[in-house]
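[Q] Does anyone have a clean structure-token version of this?
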Amino acid sequence: MKSPWLLPRGRLILASGSPRRQALLRAQGVRFRVAAQDVDETWRGERPEALARKLALEKALSAARRHPRAWCLGADTVVALGDEVFGKPASRREATGMLRRLSGRWHRVITGVALVGPRGSRAVRAVTTRVRFRRLTAAEIAWYVADPEPYDKAGAYAAQGKGAVLLAAIEGDAPNVIGLPLGATRALLARAASRS
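[A] Here you go.
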């Protein structure tokens, strides 16, 4: 059977070191090379959706400067409670504070996805998924922040790891919560394929 993934001609570069994004794409049979890009992820008060799109595009553009003949896919995920962005916690105290604030509440997980190709081609999208945490006890939070898992994750949790036990509900694109909205990514690549 034919794959639902239509890819543009040429190499595909994933401008992210995230093992979760890599695993999601590999599970779909998409072939790519990894070229992780470092960009400044500091939140400066932008709306969360705008920040996710900006960071995804910066990663894709950075990779495209090094690989000008390839298609470069950038992605960045932010966690937002209202209009406040939760980044990656720098300490156990910060992780604990984030989880306390998310406990029992709905929040948004927003992933920006950007595709930059040869001859200046570019497209950017942001996908939002709503997530609700269970009411967490202090003991549950202490158990989770004692693990290394929360510290390289926006919002201090991983929905696909031990952090899955913290969740009560997900509304929307589930892979988005792991770090890559597959539907939006497939659509960007298919659109580029139709024009390449």
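[Q] Thanks! Anything notable?
[A] The longest strand covers residues 122-133.
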